[in-house]
Amino acid sequence: TPYGYDNGWRPVENAGEGARATVRLLTWNTLWDRYDSDRIDTARRWPLLLAALERADADVIALQEVQAGLLAAILAAPWVRREYTVDTDPRGRDVEASGLLMLSRLPVREAGRHAFGPYKAAAGLTVLTAAGPLVVVGTHLTSDHTADGAGHRLRELTALADGLGGLDADVVLLGDFNDGSATPVATMGMRDAWTDLHGDDTPTF
Description:
The longest helix is centred in the last third of the chain and has 16 residues, at 149-164. 33% of the residues lie in helices and 28% in strands. The chain has a 6-stranded mixed beta sheet with strand order 2-1-5-6-4-3. Strands 7-8-9-10 form a 4-stranded mixed beta sheet. Strand 1 and strand 2 form a beta hairpin. By secondary structure, the protein is α+β, with helices and mostly antiparallel strands.
């Protein structure tokens, strides 16, 4: 169930602004401090991150590696409370279990999550646009820090392809794929927006 802010975060239905003809999407791995915490200056980064997210003026935001302190800061931000719906109960354990958070200022028809394993999952929203429903999914696939990372990613991508392949809507998959190869595009049968826009195949890694 998606949640919106009304003197507290509460379940909502079709919350958000009116449907738009164009949709601006943003994905960001916020870099949790489970590793190298002495090198990444989390206390300094988080306010800068929040300011950058607000400036981005995105209709749907897909975040990865969100930890408790950052989640609290996001949920307390006036611009988030005023404009955005989040994809899950912020008092629950979904964000803690996966590090994923989805935010939308478009009307949200439904939300869903699928766990691949510890700390790896996909979170999705169906939002309403002027062209009809759009499914936006954020994910964070297994990295090569894990043994057989490539095998894990292939299984995760195959599960995503199976789950999203039969939907009667346009689909956008965002996130940290932890993969610099052609495997994500080939497995999903989707177009790579970065390659389409910029004419190169710079890996989203």
